[in-house]
Amino acid sequence: MKSESRRGASRAPWLVVAGWVVVMLLGAGATFAGKGQEKVTICHKGKTITVGAPAVAAHQKHGDTLGPCEDPCRKACPRIYDPVTCADGRTYNIPCLAECAGKTGCTPACR
What we know:
3 domains, 3-stranded antiparallel beta sheet, 4 helices
């Protein structure tokens, strides 16, 4: 029994030290895995991602832009509702969107 309590007692200082370090880091304003930071949506190399606010300036320096990436198909397709159902059974509001998605065998959904 004495050997068990000694083993447990020798671990206690490490736990105290580890807890103290965490408290000191948090008290100094350290954040972990982006927690506590304002999040910003950016377009990074053609993909929409969310980063912590402190990282935005670095991303903008290499060409990333604020806000989500634009979908070139949505921008190029007309806004005329003309639904089509494709071979895979999925329905698209505009034939152009089905083409952009690479779908084939599309037929008018409304007759």
